From TrEMBL:
Species this chain originates from: Actinokineospora diospyrosa
Pfam families with a match to the protein in the record: FA_desaturase
Domain Fatty acid desaturase: 63-329
Listed name of the protein: Fatty acid desaturase
Length: 373
């Protein structure tokens, strides 16, 4: 699905068109965007209050189930539509200290400061560049054929399941760069600052969810603890599914460091288009994904308010069609199914499924081009 090979001139025109599209959105930002975010924040807070209140009635099973549902939705909104997007700087123009990327902290164990480095900078700068983008496999999975196979990867499906269940902890530990510690590229002492933030945030979250609120419910301690754990699990599974479907389904391309050396603006856009995928769904579905169901638009314009992605998606798709580039999109079941298929396939030695791995590929925009995983 790498599409047509673009000439340097075509890449420059592609970059200019997408820059112009971004500027039109920036020029149009205003009260509607502010009102939208504030409405989502109020909804999230109302759901949290309702959820925690209903858990205090945990002796009545329907109330417990309703409480878990409300708290799960609250955590999903906080993580996806508020936290992720605010920390990308999408709403810094509002000059609201409570919703500024520099000061915002989300309801998850991963410290905002650590996450912003590994995600906003590393992942969004080096998207799908092997050896640079640490989100490829999250340091524990083989999700791309260019990752050299090792017997360790036979456990790929098991590791993926555990990462899904404990996703917030996986995101937190991701910042330790364990694979670099194991290889000797990084020393344990160099992680002191990262570990300090992880310890403080992780302990605070664990106490809040598994000690404080359960204790406030008195004799319903165990019931409330179970409700909080279930809400965290729901948020973890949902976030894992949406993120993996936006980055790793069939047809998403990966790149070598050599291919991206001296990358122009147009070539950077080209890489984002080929290295991301969308998920189709309803308006409510898109809100619950933080509009990361429009992962292509997000990777093109990570600092634009995510509510704008569905609005500009038809224009992005038209640009892709005119330049002969793929626009990878599909339903949740289809995208998730292809991710699961890759996790199982790449768990096995290449010779078992007829794959080959090689250290080099052609230059983006000419030659052989990027390889679709």
């Amino acid at each position: 699905m790498s599409g047509k090979r673009l000439t340097p001139e075509e890449l420059d025109r592609l970059g200019a068109e997408l820059d112009a599209l971004r500027q039109r959105v920036v020029d149009d930002l205003g009260q509607a965007d502010r009102d939208y975010l504030l409405t989502v924040v109020r909804t999230q807070r109302a759901l949290e209050v309702a959820g925690r209140g209903l858990l205090f009635l945990g002796f009545f099973p329907p109330a417990w189930l309703a409480g878990v549902a409300a708290l799960s939705a609250s955590k999903i909104l906080d993580n996806m539509e508020i936290g992720h997007n605010v920390m990308h700087g999408q709403y810094d123009w509002m000059r609201d200290p409570a919703l500024n990327s520099r000061t915002f902290e989300w309801d998850t164990v991963a410290p905002a400061a650590n996450w912003k480095h590994s995600h906003n900078y590393v992942h969004h700068t080096f998207t799908n560049v092997l050896g640079k983008d640490r989100d490829i496999g999250y340091g524990i999975l083989r999700i791309d054929p260019e990752q050299r196979w090792h017997p360790y990867y036979l456990g790929n499906p098991v590791y993926a399941f555990l990462l899904m269940v404990f996703f917030q902890w996986g995101v937190m530990l991701h910042d330790l760069e364990v694979e670099r510690l194991v290889s000797g590229e990084k020393r344990w002492a160099e992680t002191a600052g990262v570990r300090r933030l992880m310890w403080r945030k992780g302990l605070r979250q664990a106490v809040k969810d598994y000690v404080l609120f359960p204790a406030l419910s008195g004799p319903l301690f165990v019931s409330t603890l179970a409700g909080n754990a279930t809400a965290n699990l729901a948020r973890n599974v949902w976030a894992f599914a949406i993120i993996f479907c936006g980055h790793f389904p069939s047809g998403v391309a990966s790149f070598t460091e050599e291919e991206t050396a001296g990358e122009s603006r147009g070539r950077w856009y080209h890489r984002q288009l080929l290295g991301s995928a969308n998920i189709t769904g309803s308006a409510l579905f898109h809100v619950l994904t933080g509009n990361l169901s429009h992962q292509i638009e997000h990777h093109l314009f990570p600092d634009l308010p995510a509510r704008r992605y569905p609005m500009i998606a038809p224009q992005v798709r038209d640009i892709c069609a005119r330049y002969g580039l793929p626009y990878n999109t599909g339903g949740l079941a289809r995208q998730l199914g292809s991710v699961v298929g890759k996790l199982v396939r790449y768990a096995l030695p290449d010779r078992w499924w007829g794959g080959t791995s090689g250290p080099t590929r052609g230059t983006v925009g000419s030659g052989r081009g990027p390889r679709a995983a």
